[in-house]
């Protein structure tokens, strides 16, 4: 197989892409969580070429920087003022070691569904037939805009004529040039030196290499690809969405073949790099994006968006928005939870309804079940954070960190003012504002004592239904209880003062 490795793959990405009507260069638009050019580079890299070159010009610095991030080994080749696909390839060859031999593959930076397998098939066919040039072609219902493939009597490719240069008869041809080729390196180099710019667009066409090679009696053949999606380019935002949807359909299908249970593929969006373990159920309305990895036997969704999230086996994540978070095995998140970057939930832990977390390390089996903001916190294993607890992490100037120890309990509706440490095995009474540290085994209580004002309803709300209810209850109490009304320890004190409030 190693002799089938191309010497070089050249990805053309210098074009302007004016029909995108965007300030973002066309090849930097994304589908499936990757830029168009990243898809192209990945397909190219998959053929294990000795060299990979990406040709840039429009928005050169942005595209080049992105290419370096995606594939640091790729050679960025600059196209000069001469326009056209032929000149683009020439510039790539100039940026690569001189005198390359073997096979050079040319692809486009805006054809995102093309796979390595298809390119390998192209190279294999090119070798098997002993071709100088092999062109991937497709037969389209509507060939408008594409270069038409001119076949000779033997069925070889005699030339490619651009739409703008074609006569009526040529325009009727439905077999089109996809723009993806395998070339013998020497033939390519020599033929390109002969290509001029005498055509309707005044460009140096790569397609002219075909006729030049054929004119020398070399073998030039077509390689038909049945899967038309793989050769379709993105020229505008309609095509971007169309190819994005098809890529997603393929990704979701692959996830199911790998063992995931997807209830509604039509409303499930998976980025290309996402992995999902077997028997995990993905419910409708769910997007799993970026480099997210989901374990096996999980339940994800409905209506959940996970971006760069790691979910352990057997976890459940329901109606949740999460980014750059780790959810441990067997943990439970949602419904209506918002996990911001830096959230780590331990095994069997819980983040419940209307809870927002950020930069929070929540230990194994710890629970933050209801209505809480938990930012900049470390929570020990088995701790329980009561409903409505606020981790006040910001004083308007700096952010502080809070530690809650293992197996500690924070009562409902407490505010913990950072930086603060609540030790292992400590309690915070409900409704407390915690402004100093709490030691092991201590209970922190910071609230005012309760007063019950006798007869207040009768005086201040006389004649209301509340007053009626109170009287009925008092009468019932008096009837059923002949015991003394002494106050037992722990019950609220009763006051009669202040009755006029
Ligand atoms: C090209 C082909 C046409 C084919 C079609 C398939 C030529 C002359 N024509 O036409 O036969 O049917 O693709 O989509 O090759 N590019 C550069 N530098 C340039 C010009 C283009 O790098 O100077 C890149 C573009 O970024 C793009 C690709 O080459 O990725 C194709 O360019 P485009 O202008 O879309 O070519 P078409 O006119 O569509
Ligand atoms: Ca195009």
Automatic annotation (TrEMBL):
Residues 238-258 are annotated as: Linker. Residues 259-501 are annotated as: N-acetyltransferase. UDP-N-acetyl-alpha-D-glucosamine binds at residues 12-15, 26, 79, 84-85, 108-110, 147, 162, 177, 235, 340, 358, 373, 384. This is Bifunctional protein GlmU. Keywords: Acyltransferase, Cell shape, Cell wall biogenesis/degradation, Cytoplasm, Magnesium, Metal-binding, Multifunctional enzyme, Nucleotidyltransferase, Peptidoglycan synthesis, Repeat, Transferase. Its cofactor is Mg(2+). Mg(2+) binds at residues 110, 235. The keyword Metal-binding applies. HAMAP family: GlmU (MF_01631). Its EC number is 2.7.7.23, 2.3.1.157. Binds 1 Mg(2+) ion per subunit. Acetyl-CoA binds at residues 387, 393-394, 412, 430, 447. The keyword Iron does not apply. In the C-terminal section; belongs to the transferase hexapeptide repeat family. It comes from Terrabacter tumescens. It catalyses: N-acetyl-alpha-D-glucosamine 1-phosphate + UTP + H(+) = UDP-N-acetyl-alpha-D-glucosamine + diphosphate; alpha-D-glucosamine 1-phosphate + acetyl-CoA = N-acetyl-alpha-D-glucosamine 1-phosphate + CoA + H(+). Gene3D superfamilies: Hexapeptide repeat proteins, Spore Coat Polysaccharide Biosynthesis Protein SpsA, Chain A. Residues 9-139 form the MobA-like NTP transferase domain. SUPFAM superfamilies: Nucleotide-diphospho-sugar transferases, Trimeric LpxA-like enzymes. Pathway: Nucleotide-sugar biosynthesis; UDP-N-acetyl-alpha-D-glucosamine biosynthesis; UDP-N-acetyl-alpha-D-glucosamine from N-acetyl-alpha-D-glucosamine 1-phosphate: step 1/1; Nucleotide-sugar biosynthesis; UDP-N-acetyl-alpha-D-glucosamine biosynthesis; N-acetyl-alpha-D-glucosamine 1-phosphate from alpha-D-glucosamine 6-phosphate (route II): step 2/2; Bacterial outer membrane biogenesis; LPS lipid A biosynthesis. Residues 1-237 are annotated as: Pyrophosphorylase. The lineage of its organism: Bacteria, Bacillati, Actinomycetota, Actinomycetes, Micrococcales.
């Amino acid at each position: 197989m190693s002799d089938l490795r191309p010497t070089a793959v050249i990805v053309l990405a210098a074009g302007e892409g004016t029909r995108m009507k965007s300030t973002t260069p066309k090849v930097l638009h994304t589908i499936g969580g990757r830029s168009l050019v990243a898809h192209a580079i990945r397909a190219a890299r998959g053929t294990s070429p000795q060299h990979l070159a990406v040709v840039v010009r429009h928005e050169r610095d942005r595209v080049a920087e992105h290419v370096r991030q995606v594939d640091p080994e790729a050679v960025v080749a600059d196209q000069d003022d001469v326009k056209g696909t032929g000149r683009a390839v020439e510039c790539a060859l100039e940026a690569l070691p001189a005198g390359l031999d073997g096979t050079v593959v040319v692809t486009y930076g805006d054809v995102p569904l093309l796979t390595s397998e298809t390119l390998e098939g192209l190279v294999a066919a090119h070798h098997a037939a002993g071709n100088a040039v092999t062109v991937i072609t497709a037969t389209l219902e509507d060939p408008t805009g594409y270069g038409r493939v001119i076949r000779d009597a033997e069925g070889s490719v005699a030339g490619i004529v651009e739409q703008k240069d074609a006569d009526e008869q040529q325009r009727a041809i439905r077999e089109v040039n996809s723009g993806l080729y395998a070339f013998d390196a020497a033939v390519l180099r020599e033929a390109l030196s002969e290509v001029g710019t005498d055509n309707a667009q005044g460009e140096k066409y790569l397609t002219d290499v075909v006729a030049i090679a054929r004119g020398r009696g070399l073998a030039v053949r077509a390689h038909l690809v049945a899967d038309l999606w793989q050769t379709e380019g993105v020229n505008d935002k309609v095509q971007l969405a169309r190819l994005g949807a098809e890529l997603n359909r393929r990704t979701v299908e692959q996830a199911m073949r790998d063992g995931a249970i997807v209830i509604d593929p039509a409303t499930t969006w998976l980025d290309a790099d996402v992995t999902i373990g077997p028997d995990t159920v993905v419910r409708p309305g769910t997007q799993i994006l970026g480099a997210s990895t989901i374990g096996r036997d999980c339940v994800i969704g409905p209506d959940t968006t996970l971006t760069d999230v790691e979910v352990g086996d057997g976890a459940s994540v329901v109606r949740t928005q999460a980014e750059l978070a780790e959810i441990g095995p067997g943990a439970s998140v949602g419904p209506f939870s918002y996990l911001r970057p830096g959230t780590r939930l331990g095994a069997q832990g819980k983040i419940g309804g209307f809870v927002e977390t950020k930069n929070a390390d929540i230990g194994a089996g710890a629970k933050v079940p209801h209505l809480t903001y938990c930012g900049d916190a470390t929570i020990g294993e088995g701790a329980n954070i009561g409903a409505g607890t606020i981790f006040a992490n910001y004083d308007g100037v700096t952010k502080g960190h809070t530690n809650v120890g293992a197996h500690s309990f924070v009562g409902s509706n407490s505010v913990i003012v950072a930086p603060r440490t609540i030790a292992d095995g400590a309690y915070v009474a409900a409704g407390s504002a915690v402004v100093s540290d709490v030691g092991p085994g201590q209970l922190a209580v910071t609230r005012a004592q309760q007063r019950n004002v006798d007869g207040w309803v009768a005086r201040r709300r006389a004649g209301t239904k509340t007053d009626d209810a109170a009287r009925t209850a008092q009468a019932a109490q008096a009837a059923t209880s002949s015991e003394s009304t002494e106050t037992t320890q722990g019950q609220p004190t009763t006051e009669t003062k202040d009755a006029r409030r």
